[in-house]
């Protein structure tokens, strides 16, 4: 019994008057009307309608509709990394991963707000800060965040995890920013400077409090 894909291909040949297997002419999908230059492209496309998956992984039995998809999947078992960076020699499993990596060498930032990003995902996360979207919700207290990393950082307030350790005094912190602020108590660094009187502070909050002595603002 002919499969749906085979039936479509027979009908396509009747309508086109036969033709060579992969001649550069228009081949039309009977399901959606989309046209392809080569018959092989139409065959691949038809699988998206029929759901047929002819290619099976011998390692885990997962099935795929395209041979190329199976080959990419097989690399997750073999560890093969076919895509190599010509700058530093690092190898990658997927071409997309290599392309993203190459931007770390070229400095290319194709995704931009007014701020620029080398990763589309980073741009999408950044745009949420403008839109006010907070899709990542804490199941403990219902606080929500615009980035997954923000949620992970917040979760440490519930778990008590403190990944960041001061090498001077061994005090531990749940956030890198808190460790950096703490380190200034050892280094004496004061990066926040008052433009009115040039007094310097180790914390932005202290500078803001100080500025009220010039502006007369009350907290």
Automatic annotation (TrEMBL):
The terms under GO molecular function for this entry are: DNA-binding transcription factor activity, RNA polymerase II-specific; RNA polymerase II cis-regulatory region sequence-specific DNA binding; zinc ion binding
Pinpoint the C2H2-type domain residues: 27-54, 55-82, 83-110, 113-135, 136-163, 164-191, 192-219
Question: What InterPro entries does this protein map onto?
Answer: Znf_C2H2_sf, Znf_C2H2_type
User: Where is region (Disordered) located?
Assistant: 1-26
Where is there biased composition of kind Basic and acidic residues? 1-15
Q: Which GO terms describe its cellular component?
A: chromatin; PcG protein complex; transcription regulator complex
* Alphabetical UniProt keywords: Metal-binding, Nucleus, Repeat, Zinc, Zinc-finger
Highest taxon, organism lineage: Eukaryota
Q: Report what the protein is called.
A: Zinc finger protein 678-like
Q: Which organism is it from?
A: Branchiostoma belcheri (Amphioxus)
